[in-house]
């Protein structure tokens, strides 16, 4: 199957997933008098997923056969191996995150997870740059802190504090 067809198929899959998630959010029982309620987060994720899926389908759809052929010729055999290693590494760090987030805490574990995940996705050249590492570190630390305080103060949802609590 060509790369274009794979991108269209995965876009359709995620679009159907987003629709199912949005439809499933109607079955969530409203137990609080919050302005947003427990349905807000699943619906927001469903909408963002649907938007990204439509963008992916549109980008793959408008790709010309010449562009697709040029991409196929430029691929290397080692790329598949690297993707497999990255996929296994991603699953491993997600598993560690899930196991340790309650004990260590949301902020620390999310910062570590983000740093590791971003590092996996960066190219070797980018990893050699000190500027890239500083930006990655800042994003990895500031993002979970922002999310923690957003959930705490805006949504009154308490995330695991772990050793910081």
UniProtKB/TrEMBL annotation:
Domain annotation DUF1468: ranges: 9-160
Residues of the signal peptide: none
Domain of life: Bacteria
InterPro entries (UniProt xref): DUF1468
Keyword Nuclease: no
Pfam families assigned to the protein according to its UniProt record, in alphabetical order: TctB
Protein name per UniProt: Tripartite tricarboxylate transporter TctB family protein
Species of origin: Candidatus Lachnoclostridium stercoravium
